[in-house]
Design brief:
The protein is an all-alpha fold. The protein has 17 helices and no strands. Helix 3 packs antiparallel against helix 12, helix 7 runs antiparallel to helix 12 and helix 11 packs antiparallel against helix 15.
Length: 440
C-alpha cells in the first residue's frame, strides 16, 4: 500500500509541495499510514471514553485522573523493561497487540456484567493510560527514523495521519454508535491496532536500508536500548533540555483539563442520554480533525519554511489566552465547545508536530525512555493535579468566570515554557550527551 501510493500521484505531489526526496517517500507514506490506523482506533474509542466518564459520574472525574496517573506510574517500569530488551521493530507490535487484547477483554466484561459503573471507570482509566503509550512510542519511533532536518519537512504531513484517522474514527463512531451499539466499537478499534503492526516492520526495514555509514550504525538502529529500565526518570531530571520539555507538557495539560472539565459538566446537564453524548463527542471530533487535516496538508509545511519555529510554537498558547478571556465573559456550552475545538485543532495540527520535533536531536535512549516519561507520566500528573486544582477552586467558591481567568494565566505561563523549549531547539541545545546507565 505504501509503495503504490509513494510511486503515484501522491508521491509527485509530496515531492513538489513538501520538498520530499524520492528515497523518503516510502518511509513518509508508511509512517502516515501507521499513524492513521493507530489514531483511527483511538478516535473511535475517545467518544466512548467521554461517555464512560459521564456514566461513572462527573464528580468522580478528578479521582479518575488520579487513578490514571497512578496506573501510568505503575506501568512505567514495565515499559522500561520492554524498551530496554526489545528491538524497536518488536516493541510497537508487542504494545499494539497487547492493547488489542485488552479491548477484547473489555468487550467480554461489558457483556458479562449488568452494572457498568465500575467497568466504565476502568475503561476510562485504561484508555487514558494506554493512548498516551501507543502514541508516545509511535513518535519515539519517528524521532528514531527521521533526522532533525527531515522532521521539519516531514512531521507535519505525518501528523496529518492523526487528523485523517481523527476524521475516520469519529465518523465511524457517530454513524455506528446508534446502529451496532457503543460496545461493538471496541472490536473495530482492536482490528485497526492489529492492522498497524505490519507497517511497523515495513518502516524498520526502510530505515535500515536508508542508514548510510558503518555497519555499526545499521546494527545500532535495530538494537535494543539496554540499560536501566528506570533511566528515563534520571534523564528528565538531569537534563535541562528534557526538564524544559517536561514543564511545557505539564502546563499543556492544565490548559486542556480545565476546559475539558467545564465541557463535561455542561454536557452532563444538557444531554442525559449516553448514546446522544457519544454522538455529540463523535461529531466534535470529526470537526476538529477536518480542520486539523486542512492545516497539516496545506499550511503547516509552508509555515515551517517561512515562520520561525519559536513563533509557530506560540500560536496556540496565544489563542488559548484569548479564548479563556472570551469564555470568562461568555461561559455557555457552544462557546466552550468552540474553544475546545480551537484548542484541539491547534494542538493536533501545530503543537504536536512542533513538540515532537524537539526530540529529534536528543540521544536515542532519551527518545524512548525520557520521552515516554514526559509523554505519559508527566502528562497524566498534569491532568491529575489540574483536575484537583479545578475542584479546589470550585470548592473555594470561585465562579466559572474566575476559573476561566485563572486558566488564561496558566495559558500565558504555558506560552513562556513553549518559547523557552523552542529557543533551545533552534540554538541546538537539544543535542546532549546520553546519561550513563547502570546495566546491572
Amino acid at each position: 500500500m505504501a509503495e503504490q501510493a509513494a510511486g503515484g500521484a501522491l508521491g509527485r505531489w509530496l515531492i513538489r509541495v513538501l520538498s520530499v526526496r524520492r528515497e523518503e517517500l516510502r518511509g513518509l507514506v508508511g509512517a502516515f499510514a501507521l499513524l492513521f490506523l493507530v489514531w483511527t482506533a483511538y478516535s473511535i474509542l475517545r467518544p466512548v471514553r467521554e461517555t464512560m466518564g459521564i456514566t461513572s459520574g462527573v464528580s468522580k472525574l478528578p479521582l479518575l485522573f488520579w487513578a490514571t496517573f497512578a496506573c501510568t506510574l505503575a506501568i512505567q517500569p514495565v515499559f522500561g523493561v520492554l524498551a530496554a530488551r526489545l528491538r524497536r521493530a518488536a516493541l510497537l507490535p508487542a504494545l499494539y497487540g497487547f492493547f488489542a487484547a485488552n479491548l477484547l477483554g473489555f468487550y467480554l466484561w461489558f457483556h458479562l456484567q449488568d452494572d457498568h459503573t465500575w467497568i466504565a471507570r476502568a475503561f476510562f482509566v485504561w484508555l487514558s493510560v494506554v493512548n498516551l503509550f501507543w502514541l508516545s512510542v509511535f513518535w519515539s519511533f519517528m524521532a528514531d527514523l527521521f533526522s532533525r532536518e527531515q522532521s521539519h519537512r516531514l512531521f507535519g504531513f505525518i501528523a496529518a495521519g492523526t487528523s485523517l484517522g481523527g476524521l475516520a474514527g469519529p465518523l465511524l463512531t457517530a454513524t455506528l454508535a446508534g446502529t451496532i451499539g457503543t460496545l461493538n466499537l471496541l472490536l473495530v478499534a482492536a482490528a485497526l491496532l492489529l492492522a498497524a503492526i505490519p507497517l511497523v516492520r515495513l518502516l524498520d526495514r526502510w530505515q535500515t536500508g536508508q542508514v548510510r555509514g558503518s555497519a555499526d550504525s545499521v546494527a545500532d538502529a535495530g538494537r535494543p536500548l539496554g540499560g536501566n529500565p528506570f533511566a528515563g526518570f534520571g534523564q528528565v531530571l538531569a537534563s535541562p533540555v528534557m526538564a524544559g520539555i517536561a514543564l511545557f507538557v505539564f502546563l499543556l495539560t492544565w490548559v486542556s483539563t480545565l476546559l475539558y472539565l467545564e465541557q463535561q459538566a455542561l454536557v452532563d446537564r444538557l444531554l442525559p442520554d449516553a448514546d446522544e453524548q457519544t454522538q455529540l463527542f463523535g461529531w466534535i471530533d470529526f470537526g476538529v480533525q477536518a480542520a486539523s487535516l486542512a492545516i497539516q496538508l496545506v499550511l503547516l509545511g509552508q509555515l515551517m519554511r517561512r515562520v520561525r519555529f519559536t513563533v509557530l510554537i506560540l500560536v496556540v498558547p496565544a489563542l488559548m489566552v484569548a479564548g479563556y478571556l472570551w469564555l470568562a465573559t461568555n461561559p455557555v456550552l457552544w462557546a466552550i465547545v468552540g474553544t475546545m475545538i480551537v484548542r484541539r485543532v491547534g494542538e493536533y495540527s501545530i503543537m504536536r508536530p512542533c513538540r515532537e520535533m524537539l526530540f529529534t536531536s536528543v540521544p536515542r535512549a532519551m527518545k524512548y525512555k525520557a520521552k515516554n516519561i514526559i509523554d505519559t507520566l508527566v502528562y497524566r500528573a498534569g491532568d491529575a493535579v489540574s483536575a484537583s486544582a479545578h475542584a479546589g477552586l470550585v470548592a473555594l467558591g470561585l465562579t466559572t468566570t474566575g476559573v476561566f481567568l485563572f486558566a488564561a494565566g496558566m495559558s500565558a505561563l504555558w506560552g513562556w515554557s513553549a518559547l523557552t523549549a523552542a529557543r533551545r531547539h533552534e540554538e541546538g541545545h537539544g543535542v546532549a550527551p546520553a546519561l550513563p546507565e547502570r546495566t546491572g
